[in-house]
Specification:
alpha/beta, ABC transporter transmembrane region fold, Rossmann fold, 6-stranded mixed beta sheet, 4-stranded antiparallel beta sheet, 22 helices, elongated
Length: 578
């Protein structure tokens, strides 16, 4: 039936100017008929090459000739714009997801970050977001086109069932189509599980990488190069194994669909022959089947990539949906500058199931230099970290000037606290910018004054670029004492009423330590200072000492009182003084 009407249809479409439809029709019929290129051209453009047809005006010839490059130009421009904007959308989505992920990390409590390997978080923020971008771009490109092509081809098969005598043939063909969906579903479930393993193993590889770079000095000092290479090699081999399992299932999908398609075509051929179906009908059905199976294969590939993207999305959502345990209260208490009186009311805190503080009560008056001493793991750092709400108390309360820290906005609370860690962190920026972090709107004069107070100005001025010297990642280009003095200067610049010093002078030589202690004596006037003391030489000027043991405060007082009345304090002090 199609062959009977096709000469009239082609000629009518061509002479009436709907050239694109004629060309499309001719190409489809010519390709499916196995024509060569010369015959195909003559078939597509019969008014030009048919000598018996009425001659065409020259204007029509030019129109026909001009439409061909015009159509391909429009196709090329449309394809380019489509690809460009799909990629642009994917990049924008990637940027948004990464920013949301990074922003979430800034809000999550320290306890969450301590439980997670940094390499795994980096892998989620980079590799998983990149996989998600690729999946979304592929979905935007083929997520509508391929299903629509499949539905169109199926609709044509249904139409053929009504207009031809080959109804049974069409039903057989349609029975094969859902059969090809079975491996797509099976492979999709396999790929989801394997893709999760791949992303997890990629996080392990990133963790090993970061851990090795952060411990480069120790690796060389202890001759661990070969050990680290072997560890990294094991991680990468496990990653390759997981990746190849994904490839195994993904690559097996297309041959499986093609084999099932071949079974369908073979069954169709047999039924068509026995049913006396005409060649035109059979050819049309086979063409429709081809148009069915191609999108099925691409939908299968899309399905596998969707499962890979789903695995990455689940890993990202595990962080994005993690509840923010430490947040601003719904109605915060307005806070300006605090005086600095800190009170612990029967505070209990645990890291998971491990108790760190047990019903701790203490009062630290404003302007007091309070030293926290005790064996390692006794709870000193935990006690100090509860003041700026780095962790949330389990039971009890921590108040400053009578206000619960949980009732304040985090920004207001932490603006009143300066921190100097035992291992200060400097960013890969200039010394000036690292110091300016202590106070956002600090003038250059204030920054220089803070550096002088910490006895850092002298070594900074001696550097070739002075305050414009880049310190390297984590301040690697500076000595330990220099980094410590910069961190102290940053705390001085903050001019906060509460200072938390985690053995802030541990990396200084004796001369610098004496100078910094003198600066601290001037700085603490009217301020509250918590000193997490590991060396007892740093607490000589402390007006109050809290002695910790197994998560409890077992004694408090000044040095003379504790040395005379507390055996634990006396043994710790004598051990360092010997």
């Amino acid at each position: 039936m199609l062959r009977r009407f096709q000469p009239y249809l082609r000629y009518l479409l061509a002479t009436r100017g709907t050239l694109a439809a004629a060309i499309l029709y001719g190409l489809l019929y010519g390709v499916t008929s196995g024509m060569g290129l010369p015959s195909l051209v003559k078939y597509v453009f019969p008014p030009i090459f048919d000598r018996e047809a009425p001659p065409l005006p020259s204007a029509t010839i030019w129109l026909v000739a001009g439409c061909v490059p015009l159509l391909f130009l429009l196709r090329a421009v449309a394809g380019y714009l489509s690809s460009y904007y799909v990629q642009l959308t994917g990049v924008r989505v990637l940027e948004s997801v990464r920013l949301d992920f990074f922003s979430r990390l800034q809000l999550l409590p320290l306890s969450y970050l301590q439980r997670r390997a940094s390499g795994d978080l980096v892998s989620r923020g980079l590799a998983d977001t990149a996989q998600l971008q690729f999946t979304l771009s592929l979905l935007a490109s083929d997520g509508v086109k391929q299903p629509m092509q499949l539905l169109g081809a199926v609709a044509f098969l249904v139409y053929q069932a009504f207009v031809t005598d080959g109804t049974l043939l069409v039903l057989v063909c349609l029975a094969v189509v859902p059969l090809t969906v079975l491996p797509v579903h099976y492979v999709g479930k396999k790929i989801l599980r394997r893709a999760q393993q791949v992303q997890q193993q990629l996080g392990d590889v990133s963790s090993h990488f970061i851990e090795n770079l952060s411990a480069a000095r120790e690796v060389r000092a202890f001759g661990l190069e070969r050990r680290e290479i072997e560890r990294f090699g094991r991680s990468t081999r496990l990653l390759i194994t997981a990746q190849m399992k994904v490839v195994k299932y993904a690559q097996a999908l297309t041959p499986t669909i093609e084999f099932l398609s071949a079974l369908g075509i073979a069954a169709t051929l047999v039924v068509a022959y026995r049913g006396g179906v005409s060649w035109d009908t059979f050819l049309a059905v086979i063409t429709a089947l081809y148009l069915c199976y191609e999108p099925i294969k691409k939908v299968g590939y899309l399905n596998s990539e969707l499962h890979r993207g789903l695995a990455s999305l689940e890993r990202l959502e595990a962080v994005l949906h993690e509840p923010v345990a430490i947040a601003d209260p719904a109605t915060p208490v307005p806070v300006d500058r605090l005086r600095g009186q800190i009170v612990f009311h029967d505070v209990t805190f645990a890291y998971g199931d491990t108790p760190a503080l047990r019903q701790v009560s203490a009062t630290i008056r404003a302007g007091t230099v309070c030293a926290l001493v005790g064996p390692s793991g006794a709870g000193k750092s935990t006690f100090a970290n509860l003041v700026p709400r780095f962790f949330e108390v389990g039971q009890g309360a921590v108040t400053i000037d009578g206000t619960d820290v949980r009732a304040m906005r985090l920004a207001d609370l932490r603006r009143n606290i300066a921190l100097v860690s035992q291992e200060p962190v400097l960013f890969n920026d200039t010394i000036y910018q690292n110091l300016a972090l202590g106070k956002g709107a600090a003038s250059r004069e204030e920054i220089l004054a803070a550096a002088r107070s910490a006895h850092a100005h002298e070594f900074i001025a001696a550097l070739p670029q002075g305050y414009d010297t880049v310190v390297g990642e984590r301040g690697v280009l500076l000595s330990g004492g220099q980094k410590q003095r910069l961190a102290i200067a940053r705390a001085f610049l903050r001019h906060a009423p509460i200072l938390i010093l985690d053995e802030a002078t541990s990396a200084l030589d004796s001369d610098s330590e004496a100078a910094v202690q003198d600066a601290l004596r001037r700085l603490v006037v009217g301020k509250t200072v918590l000193i997490i003391a590991h060396r007892f030489s740093t607490i000589r000027d402390a007006t109050q000492i809290l002695v910790f043991d197994r998560g409890e405060i077992v004694a408090q007082g000044d040095h003379d009182t504790l040395y005379a009345g507390n055996a634990l304090y006396k043994s710790l002090y004598d051990r360092q003084s010997a």
